[in-house]
Please model this.
Amino acid sequence: MNVVPRVLRVASVLLAYRLDELVDAAHLFRPLKVVRPFVARPRADVRSMPRGERLRLALTELGPIFVKAGQVLSTRRDLVPADIADELSQLQDQVPPFAGAEARAIVERELKAPISQLYARFDETPLASASIAQVHAATLHDGSEVVVKVLRPGIEKRIDRDVKLLRSLGELAQRWHPNADKIRPLDVVAEVEKMLENELDLQREGASASLLRRNFESGVDLYVPAVHWELTTGGVLTLERVRGVSSDDIAAIDAAGIDRKALAVKGVRLFYEQVFRDNFFHADAHPGNIWVDTTRPTEPRFIALDFGIMGSLPEEDQYWLAQNFIALFERDYARIAQLHVDAGWMPSTVRLDELTAAVRTVCEPYFTRPLSQISLAELVVKLFQTARRYQLTLQPQLILLQKTLLNIEGVGRMLDPEIDIWAVAHPVLKRILRERYSPLRTLRTVRRRLPEWLHAAPEFPELIRDALRQVARGEQRSVSDPNALAQQRDDAQRSQRALAYGLLGSSLLICSAVLWTQAAEHGVWPSLATAVIGVFAFAIGWPRR
Model:
């Protein structure tokens, strides 16, 4: 019952901003209609505002957690109308700072030492303040400049309380909204909750910054500030201080003499390298978090900030996504449809001819324009929206990727409005895939995993014998559905194929290991050739979706 007053306040603010369509059409507050005359009076000054702006202002008034929820919704363009998503993407997570003396006390408590012992100077006036934490400038005893990020006092309790409120609203939406099965409000709340949980652990953010810095160790294209681990805990993060300008500050970039066209191309390339080369990407890459180093006009580079939201994909999804991008670049609509089914993103019962026609309907109008005018991000969003009609299952990682693609393309077009995203992205992606799935890399992977396979090899004959006994005894579930029986026969054939080729591949890899021990006498080629044939046998027998 203690949630009811806060739910009434949410309804009151929405109605005050004349968001009646959200209250009535969405049916979120149907149980509250009795008290509606008492909870809100529409504001006159918002009458002429578009609905997206009114919603943005309402969420800002409701507080930081609702701002976070709006930021998540802005990424769900498969669920939210474009005008609302565009407006919500402008939500800024800015709140009044808390006292610098309190920040000093938190740092001393977290790092278990006086501030004078930790830093030569600690500025109590914050550089920036957000709903989760605020940032202070400091100097180390060796003269190095750093920034110290400090969690807000009591933030865990406040977030826990507000998340409960969001969950209550999600349950109302799940119950009353006519399209709840498509919007999945509780899933959206879960995304917000996970994002907040990650942002509350500053040590996790430091680890993300450290990994991204290692992936771009040269610092030529992307610079990531170093983490001072001796001054970092779950509640305090100390980073090297960096200086630059926001990537949307075109005047400052031009004043520094930087070639914006080259910078835009570099930004697109960095996105594909993070996603498909490293499988670890900055998932909150708006201009405020992506700066430009103005001290290097002849060799421009970006500076990354704020590592609270990072993304990665399961290796299998990464492969299927890359193949989808390649098929999209080559306008192979039938392959896009087939890849969606092969990846398991859609049920195998989908009619491929209908899905191919739907993909063609979305893509063809775009390809009538010059490639420099085609928004790859917009096209991907529309493809996802179309695919939802065919029961597309979107994973949170893919949604983060979609958001990042929108951000990166937006930054690229701000720097160079004429950039041809397709011409830049296609060769970069093909090069990364060529390197990632090259025979040499496959051999290295085999060599690395060979001890693991050899350890498991003695169990293979027994496992195969048990499986064959089950097949011979007919130990299978009785099924009356003809489609299920056909599926079961297909599964049995695939299992037999996998077992046969798996046994052959295992035997060859064991032989390869034996030959490797005799390489000094016979050379390495017999061992390598046997290993390649063994891997090839595994590839032939590998279960297909």
